[in-house]
Amino acid sequence: MLMIVRLYPKTDVSRVWNYVENEIKDENDEQITPLYATQSEGMMNVGIIFDVKEPDSLSKFITEEIVKCDEVHHTKTVSLMKPVFFPIPKKKPENIQRYVIRIYAHAGNGICHQVHLERFGRPGKTLLGSDSHTPTGGGVGMIAIGAGGLDVAVAMADGPFYLTCPK
């Protein structure tokens, strides 16, 4: 499954980039592989998309590897394919206090197109979703765009989303 980890710096995002370029980009084992790192203009975080075979491996990676970068203040983690629950590692619980693992949708929350309207529907806001019902957000005055899964994944990792407009 694909997962995004956003690294938020204490003060200097360039120090986080240095850590990503020098330490994380070459990480590769059977369970976790970094695929892509990005930072949107003006954003104070670095997003990394990982291919994760076993969810526990990402939790372990965050508490054992990311913690080595003193400039990282906290992280946010987003599952791109399905909700995943991470158990807290028993060996290093003190590191968990520094990081937050977020899951945006849990089982039982409801049908996604209704959840879009109830939780994210705000007049004048923009919604980019990979569900075919995403455009129903237009009914509450949003710009709600249905897109492909990879387009949404890149946007969640702070990458750009381009619209093709007719001439």
UniProtKB/TrEMBL annotation:
Source organism of the structure: marine sediment metagenome
GO cellular component annotations of the record: cytosol
Protein name: Aconitase/3-isopropylmalate dehydratase large subunit alpha/beta/alpha domain-containing protein
A GO biological process held by the record: tricarboxylic acid cycle
MF annotations from Gene Ontology: 4 iron, 4 sulfur cluster binding; aconitate hydratase activity; metal ion binding
Gene3D superfamilies for this protein: Aconitase, domain 3
Residue stretches making up the Aconitase/3-isopropylmalate dehydratase large subunit alpha/beta/alpha domain: 95-167
Key words, A-Z: Iron, Iron-sulfur, Metal-binding
PANTHER family: ACONITATE HYDRATASE B, ACONITATE HYDRATASE, MITOCHONDRIAL
